[in-house]
Structure prediction request, 381 residues.
Amino acid sequence: MNRDICTDALLAGALLRPPWVHQAFRKVNREDFVPDTVWLPAKDPEGNWEFVDRAADAEKWRQAVWNPYQSVVTQLDDGAVPRSGPSAGDFTSSVSALDIVMRKLGHLDLQEGHRVLEIGYASGYHTALLCERVTSSNVTAVEVDESLAAWGESHLKQAGYSPHLICGDGLQGAPSRAPFDRIINTASLRRVPVEWVEQAAPGAVVLTPFGTAYNNTGLLRLAVDSGSVAEGYFVGQASYMWIRGERPAVDLQVPQESTARRSPVAPEAVLEVDDAHAFAIGLQVPDVSYSFRGEGQERRVQFVDEAGTSATIVRYADWWKRDAVRSWGPRDLWAEVTAAYTWYEEQGRPHITRFGVTVDRNGQRVWLDNPGNPVGWSASP
Prediction:
């Protein structure tokens, strides 16, 4: 795998449109923004992420860099894990896969002279692509991690780019540099900050990965009007790491007492579905997450709410029996999830691009087809 093969793959997928995206891709050398040691998102039998060292295997490293459909992971556990060998841990920074990078840039509708705010510049690769389109002077980029911020700044300077870089909380935007014509985020979030909307110029576009605790695979595109209201549809799917201020976290504190009942539906019918299906369910139960336990006859799924006050465990085997569902706390989370599943089926399994979001000073609202058809969840600013 090399740049030419990667280019052919991106062209075949129509991912280098408009022309400026193709030109920027050819101009910015991705290898200059990828460290010599990285992890790949594939686990070995011991549960460690695959490690690639350029010094030990330059060809494998280059294949990883130019694989158009796979990110290269540059940080685990916020930097607590050294980049020195196969390791376990959570991904906390990467150089994103080229297919989604180019797809996002296509959705951005970026024009020459636009003022751009980028959230999460990390390696600087994505920032350099933006600079190619609007020049460095029109790009403001924010990175929360001090070590990543210094690393990305070094890459950008060495490659000849000089955007305005800020080490800070990207959820707050960059008010001193506003207004912005385009705001693009490179990590997933659950609530679009009203600060971004207020820092956007009339007619601006906000593009961000978006998810819920239940499913994190949406790509949201909002247009901002002159009254600081942002509204728009999901334009597709994108799986990104959580922005640090939005990571779901649960401190489970449920009562010992529980209730039991049967399940109205087999768990696999609700859970073993594609991401678009799960994403729609998650929009209705955004504070609910789940995990699997056991195998075979012992297979179970556990649901918890973000407040940590409710939990539900559902047994896969004999799900129709009276004790297959057991709940702790005030909420029956399996009842909420199956109700969301039924609603989605009743609506004819609407495509992700039929869902949308409105953000203003009153908070965030999710809807289907139009803002007058809410999807049962809103968030205050």
Observations:
- The two ends are 45 Å apart (CA to CA).
- The mean pLDDT is 95.
- The first strand starts at residue 37 and ends at 43.
- Residues 99 and 189 are 20 Å apart (CA to CA).
